[in-house]
Design goal:
- There is one protein chain.
- The protein is an alpha/beta fold and 578 residues long.
- The strands form four sheets. It has a 26-stranded parallel sheet that branches. A ten-stranded parallel sheet has the order 2-5-9-13-17-21-25-27-29-32.
- Strand 39 and strand 40 form a beta hairpin.
Length: 578
C-alpha cells in the first residue's frame, strides 16, 4: 500500500485522494475521502474498482464520501446501487457527504436516510432535490452552499436538522416539509425567495441572524415550539403566516413592507427596526392554503388558545407598526419610540386592574392598564393581591417611566377616534404622575390627589355624583339648621301724612331674618332648603330669604356643587364620545 501524502496546509482531516495535487497551484488536490481498501476517492477510482465497490453496496449501507466531487451520472450510479427493490427508492444508512461537491443536478428525491446524514460544507453547483426524502437520524447541511434551486418539498426530518450558515443562492422550497426535532437555520443566507408553505415543526424553528435578501414567505406553517428570528435581516417583502407557541424577533431588521399573521403565538419584537409598514395581526380561523385545504394544527392541540399575545415592544420605533386583534395585557412598552403613532386595529386588549375582593377595603375602578404598572404595584409594600409580578427579564419601570407611555398611548387612541379607550390611558397617566415622587412636586401631587378623590381625574361620574349628593345633603342640613330664618321677614311701610294734605311718602322696610329658635327640621323647612340647594346646583339664586349664615352656605354650594356636576358630565362625555 502506498504512503499517504504528507500533511499540507488546508488539507482535510480524513485520508484524502490528492488527485491533481500541484505543489505550486493546489498542494492538496482532490479532497475526496478514500474508498475503503483504496487510495482514491469514488470519483477518481479506476472504473473496475468503482464498479466493484458499487456492486458490493446494498440498500441501507453506510457510505462515506466526504470531499468527493460528484457528477450527475456518478451520483446516479451511487444511488442506484442503494436502491431498495421493494420501494424503488434509494435507502442509505449512515451517509457522510461533508465538503462534497455536486456538479449538475443532485437528486435525492424519495431517498431514505436511516441513520445520520451529513452534508456539512457541501457545495451543490446544480439543483439540489430532496423532495419526499426521509431523514431518520440527525441531519446536517451546515455551511452548505446551494448555488441553484434547493427543494425539500414534503421531506421528513425525524431528528434535529442543521442548516446553520448555509447559503441558498437561488430559491429554496420547504413546502410541506415536516421537522420532528429542532431545526436550525441560524446565520443562513437566502439570496432569493424562500417558501415554507404548509411546513410543520414539532420542535423549535431557529432562524437567528439569518439573512433574507429577497422576498420571504414563511408559511402558513405550524410550529409546536418557538420560531426564532432574532437578529435576522429581511431585505425584501415579507409574509409570515405562523401558528406557533412563540415568535421571537428581537433585534430583527425589516427593510421592506411586511405582514405577520399569527395564531397561538406569544410575540417578542424588542429592539426590532422597521423601515416600512409592518402589520402584526391575529388570525381567528386556521390558515387556508391556495388550493383551499386548511392547515392542520395537530401539533398545537394542547395549546391553551389561538390568542396572539405581544410580549415586548421595547426599543421599537412604532411609527410604522400596526397591531390588529392582539392581546397586549403582558406587553412591555417602556422604551418604545413614537408610541403615539402606533395603530391599533380590531380588538386589541390590555390588562385590567385587580377585581374587588370580598372583605377587602381596597377597590380599583376598572380600566385598561399596562403590564409594567402591574409589575410596579406588585412590588409595593401595601400591594393587594391581583397585581401581576414581573417575570424574569422584564426589568423595572416606575411611575416616572410609565407616565409618558400612558400619555403616548392616550394620543394613539385619540387619533384613532376612540375616546373611551383614551380616557383609560389618561387615567393611567394621572395615576403615575400622582405616585411619581421624582418628577412631580409635592404641591402638584396634592392637587392630583384631590382631583382623583373628587372625580377620578374627571373620568369617574359615579364618584363625582356621590360627592355632589353628599354636598347637597350637607347643604340641606346646614340650611335647615342655620340658613333658613325662623319666620319669613315681613315688609313694613311707614310714612307721614302732611297736616294740610298732599302727597304721602312711605318707606318700605324689611326686618332682618332671625335665626331659628324652635324646631328646625320640619317638612316645610326641608322643602325650602331643597329648593335653595337645587338652584345652587345649576348656579341659580333661589330668592329665598336666608340668615347671614345661610347666605354664606348658599354661596359655597353655588361654587362647589356646579363644579361637581360639571365633573360628572365631563366623565359621562368621555365614556360615550367617539
Amino acid at each position: 500500500m502506498s504512503t499517504p501524502p504528507p500533511p499540507v496546509p488546508g488539507a482535510p482531516s480524513w485520508p484524502y485522494c490528492a488527485h491533481g495535487a500541484d505543489p505550486a497551484a493546489d498542494p492538496v488536490g482532490c479532497r475526496g475521502v478514500h474508498v475503503p481498501g483504496h487510495t482514491a476517492c469514488l470519483a477518481h477510482l479506476a472504473d473496475a474498482d468503482r464498479g466493484a465497490y458499487l456492486v458490493a453496496l446494498s440498500p441501507g449501507a453506510d457510505i462515506d464520501h466526504r470531499g468527493t466531487p460528484f457528477t450527475e451520472p456518478l451520483l446516479g450510479a451511487l444511488l442506484a446501487a442503494l436502491r431498495d427493490p421493494a420501494t424503488g427508492h434509494p435507502r442509505l444508512g449512515d451517509a457522510r457527504f461533508e465538503s462534497a461537491a455536486f456538479h449538475g443536478k443532485a437528486s435525492f428525491d424519495s431517498a431514505t436516510f436511516h441513520c445520520k446524514a451529513s452534508f456539512g460544507s457541501a457545495i451543490f453547483h446544480g439543483h439540489a432535490w430532496f423532495g419526499s426524502a426521509i431523514f431518520h437520524g440527525d441531519t446536517w447541511f451546515d455551511s452548505a452552499a446551494f448555488q441553484r434551486g434547493a427543494g425539500f418539498l414534503s421531506a421528513v426530518f425525524h431528528c434535529d436538522t442543521e442548516f446553520g450558515s448555509a447559503t441558498f443562492q437561488r430559491g429554496a422550497q420547504f413546502n410541506s416539509a415536516t421537522f420532528h426535532g429542532h431545526a436550525w437555520f441560524g446565520l443562513a443566507t437566502f439570496q432569493r425567495g424562500v417558501r415554507f408553505r404548509a411546513a410543520t415543526f414539532h420542535g423549535d424553528a431557529r432562524f437567528d441572524q439569518a439573512v433574507f435578501e429577497r422576498w420571504v414567505s414563511l408559511g402558513p406553517l405550524v410550529c409546536a415550539g418557538r420560531v426564532r428570528l432574532s437578529g435576522a435581516v429581511f431585505g425584501g417583502p415579507v409574509t409570515l403566516s405562523l401558528a406557533a407557541r412563540r415568535l421571537e424577533c428581537r433585534r430583527t431588521r425589516w427593510s421592506s413592507p411586511a405582514e405577520v399573521r399569527l395564531r397561538y403565538a406569544t410575540v417578542d419584537f424588542a429592539h426590532a427596526v422597521f423601515e416600512y409598514p409592518l402589520t402584526i395581526a391575529a388570525e381567528a380561523d386556521p390558515f387556508v392554503l391556495p388550493d383551499g385545504r386548511t392547515v392542520a394544527e395537530q401539533a398545537l392541540a394542547h395549546a391553551p388558545g389561538a390568542t396572539v399575545r405581544m410580549a415586548s415592544l421595547r426599543g421599537v420605533d412604532a411609527a410604522h407598526l400596526v397591531l390588529a386583534d392582539v392581546d397586549l395585557s403582558g406587553c412591555l412598552f417602556t422604551g418604545t419610540v413614537h408610541l403615539d403613532q402606533l395603530r391599533l386595529e380590531g380588538a386589541c386588549s390590555f390588562d385590567e386592574v385587580p377585581p374587588r375582593r370580598r372583605r377587602h377595603p381596597a377597590r380599583f375602578t376598572q380600566r385598561r392598564t399596562l403590564a409594567e404598572e402591574h409589575h410596579w404595584r406588585a412590588k409595593q409594600p401595601e400591594a393587594v393581591r391581583g397585581w401581576n409580578p414581573a417575570v424574569l427579564g422584564a426589568g423595572h419601570a416606575g411611575p416616572a417611566q410609565l407616565a409618558p407611555v400612558y400619555r403616548a398611548l392616550r394620543k394613539a387612541f385619540e387619533d384613532g377616534k376612540n375616546e373611551p379607550g383614551a380616557a383609560d390611558f389618561y387615567y393611567g397617566e394621572m395615576e403615575m404622575r400622582r405616585h411619581d415622587r421624582t418628577g412631580t412636586t409635592r404641591a402638584e401631587r396634592g392637587l392630583l390627589h384631590g382631583y382623583w378623590l373628587l372625580s377620578g381625574y374627571g373620568l369617574r361620574a359615579s364618584r363625582a355624583l356621590g360627592w355632589l349628593a353628599s354636598a347637597m345633603l350637607v347643604t340641606v342640613v346646614l340650611l335647615m339648621g342655620f340658613g333658613l330664618p325662623e319666620d319669613a321677614p315681613k315688609q313694613e311701610a311707614t310714612g307721614t301724612v302732611p297736616p294740610g294734605g298732599g302727597r304721602v311718602t312711605f318707606e318700605i322696610d324689611k326686618a332682618d331674618p332671625q335665626n331659628p329658635t324652635g324646631d328646625r327640621f320640619t317638612g316645610k323647612r326641608f322643602e325650602k332648603a331643597l329648593s335653595v340647594t337645587l338652584n345652587s346646583v345649576v348656579f341659580r339664586s333661589s330668592g329665598q330669604d336666608l340668615t347671614t349664615a345661610g347666605t354664606y352656605i348658599e354661596m359655597t354650594s353655588r361654587l362647589v356643587e356646579p363644579a361637581l356636576l360639571a365633573l360628572a358630565v365631563l366623565a359621562v362625555r368621555g365614556r360615550i364620545k367617539r
